[in-house]
Amino acid sequence: MSAVSNIYPTAALQALDAAHHIHPFSDTKALNEEGSRIITHADGIWLTDSNGNRILDGMAGLWCVQVGHGREEIAEAVNKQMSELSYYNTFFKTSHPPAIALSEKLAELAPSHMNRVFYCSSGSEANDTVFRMVRHYWDQMGKPDKKVIIGRWNGYHGSTVAGTSLGGMKGMHEQGDLPVPGVRHIDQPYWYGEGEDMSPEEFGVHVARKLEEAIDQIGEDKVAAFIAEPIQGAGGVIIPPETYWPEMKRILDERDILFVADEVICGFGRLGKWFGSEFYGLEPDLMPIAKGLTSGYLPMGGVLVSDRVCEGLIDKGGDFNHGYTYSGHPVCAAAALANLEIMQREKLVERVADDIGPYLQNRWRALGDHPLVGEARMEGLMGALELVPKKGERKTKFADGGSAGTLCRDLSFQNGMVMRAVGDSMIISPPLVLSHDEADQLIAIASKTLDDTY
Ligand code: PLP
């Protein structure tokens, strides 16, 4: 790409892009009229576009570049692995050193009751794996009627058929007649947007009990699992009220169903712990992972599997008829190992908990004083600003929902920073290597962008 970008000016690149490329989650017709935004280089937390502008990557790519862009160490590890063993699979009882070393490393980092991992190439594939794995587990345990998986409205678990079905994005369900049968959804713990007249604490318990109601309604003997992100990312950084997860944990502990914590965003330090479940004191049976596993340098995902699930999956014997050509890909595994080595050496997880996390959170929450902002929330290094037409009135929304967010997102880009808009919420999730000075720049651009949008 950099070779192409050196040869062609931006307009020529945009024309080629418009002619041949269908973009994910985009109105490609509209995009072709506007011209795509072309990123040619990146280092640290900074992107460079095809016009030479430097842009602060406030989203760490797509919530994934924990160690920052352009780390030579990862490039070298990948290069070395490419020469030694560029590809071999892990099917049919075959293995190779990078997959073995990474599995050992993940067992070391994961909660103590999780000691095994199944590999794939993305978060979506991880959740497809979850779908099949929980049903296989219950079959093996002699309870084949346990098939229903409960997810949450506005949860996000990927874009494949299973991922879209488990997720609760209605706009995605509408395209393709999803969810597939056997998936149900309960309400999300979104107090700011849906908390009606309750306090956050009351709402947290109220909405958690929807899980209990759903299990009773479906019948516990038919429910296989519940899946949720510790904090919903793509749904708008929905940080649950503090009563929510303790009540959910009570229900999950009492019921004979599996708990799947989708750690694709919250894992690998985003909340100041290796996994978001640890941040909330949860003990999941399965944890889909991706993104921060390789910091996005190469595509890789997986499912961390608890000892309890291994009892059905492994101890009872038999093939699990599932897998991907690139499960445990040696070069991706080498990238993951180099990435995790950097994270451990530079103590990035601890940094989020004790240093840059609190530093950014204080400044981010102060943006809540802006007349356009109804709530400024952040946990670890993921945060949101709720834009509102009338300060102090949580329930008054913009008439043309989403347009304030879109405007703010575009102005942010013009001002030199990527922020994402989810409706009228502005989202931030920067690389974990963000320095104090860069955090100040992030806040200054966000503040100016709010003024420009107002
Ligand atoms: N799960 C969660 C919580 C995610 O946020 C995402 C992607 O944003 C996915 C799964 C899907 O991951 P991928 O895009 O790698 O398929």
TrEMBL record:
<dbReference type="InterPro" id="IPR015422">
    <property type="entry name" value="PyrdxlP-dep_Trfase_small"/>
</dbReference>
<keyword id="KW-0032">Aminotransferase</keyword>
<dbReference type="Pfam" id="PF00202">
    <property type="entry name" value="Aminotran_3"/>
</dbReference>
<dbReference type="GO" id="GO:0008483">
    <property type="term" value="F:transaminase activity"/>
</dbReference>
<dbReference type="InterPro" id="IPR015424">
    <property type="entry name" value="PyrdxlP-dep_Trfase"/>
</dbReference>
<dbReference type="InterPro" id="IPR049704">
    <property type="entry name" value="Aminotrans_3_PPA_site"/>
</dbReference>
<comment type="similarity">
    <text>Belongs to the class-III pyridoxal-phosphate-dependent aminotransferase family.</text>
</comment>
<protein>
    <submittedName>
        <fullName>Aspartate aminotransferase family protein</fullName>
    </submittedName>
</protein>
<dbReference type="InterPro" id="IPR015421">
    <property type="entry name" value="PyrdxlP-dep_Trfase_major"/>
</dbReference>
<keyword id="KW-0808">Transferase</keyword>
<keyword id="KW-0663">Pyridoxal phosphate</keyword>
<dbReference type="InterPro" id="IPR005814">
    <property type="entry name" value="Aminotrans_3"/>
</dbReference>
